[in-house]
Amino acid sequence: MGERVADARAKTRGLQIRDLDREADDAALRRLALWATRYTPAVGRWSEENGTDGLFLDIAGASHLFGGEAALIGDLRRRLAGFGLSARLALADTPGAGWALARYGEGSEILVPSGKERVALARLPVEALRLDPGTRITLRRLGLKRVGDLLDKPRAPLSRRFGARLVHRLDQAFGRAPEPINPIAPPPVYDAVRQFLDPIVAQSAVVRVARRLFEDLAPKLERDGVGARALRLMLYRIDGEIFSVELGLAAPTRNASYIERLFDLRLDRLAGTIDPGFGFETIRLDATAVERLRPRQGTLSRSDDRSEDRAISLIDAFSQCFVRGDLTRPWPVASHIPERAVHLRSDVENAPEWLAEEEAPPRPALLLPEAEPADVIAVVPEGPPRRFRWRGRTHRVAHAQGPERIAPEWWRKQNPQPTRDYYIVDDDAGRRFWLFREGLYGREMHEPRWFVHGLFA
Asked: Is residue 335 within 8 Å of 326, Cβ to Cβ?
């Protein structure tokens, strides 16, 4: 590194030179990192100032799925070679030791037994500690050329002479200081993975696998008393291409058949964007968000799996069929004024729970965009209506329920609204209306006005 092009060409016959395209390199490395999540969800990138890039894979708890650490590393090497990529692989207990051995170790595939990092790193050059150039040059001038030359030196003089970073890098390499990996994708709370000897192509097969994977997750969710609120299905194509299918839910669930139906709907909508090619060899399901799930009575029949709330099921089904943003849902707002009490938002999956029916006053199925004036005849000035005329038609009141008084929002300095008295009114034809009288007699206005604000089903 750092040599002139003429010197490099003199040393290497047939040397090819290409202009650096860092954006393309970053995009390619990100695709490779996403592909590597087939082995473990904890995949992070490392990058140096000189442009050399690589990946960290935390395979703790995942290697047994591939027949052990050696089998996982061997499978990784073979697949990378199949993509035309040459790689140096190293397996160690710490990211620092793995980086050092992959860069400076002997061989392209190095496996260090647990606890043997000291022996493996001692013979490596000091460059393996990821130090700045000035520190590396100074160490070499003092004869400290290998990592082993530093291991038995007193820590305090090393820190005073070379700074705390040298000691910190040593501690990271040998596991005395933590070095967390920054994952390329948010780490899942729960995950399950399946690999196939014969790649699968059909959407129906993918959906069935998604159900089986969720069935693998369900006992863990039940053990912790939670349900899945957001899921991510990762499809790994045989040629290395990866597709991610996100699924957001309006409420937490552990119902595998319910998840199967939703994934089927989502894949129907994404059919034009997901090309199975020669098939998917690995499918991974991650639960990226979970929430506490209240215990409830299940169905009596095992064949009836309709345990989800009908409204929630409808929202989830629509969410999979429409592009995000095209579907909206009313959200509650901290206001008693009906037209201000809700507003529409496109984030339907994360809508808060509404008040239970017995806790909320009755509201009409249809709220008019704007309250419409009505001519009302009442027996007493502040009594319920007996007859009203609205949209050119007269209605005789058979029954009136109310009033429900809604006071103005006194904290709103601009355009304060008068007090409203709402009535639920049934006419003699069985139609039900939501009327209100605006203003209090003699206090807020001389002649209060009446409006129709909604219609009940």
From this structure: no
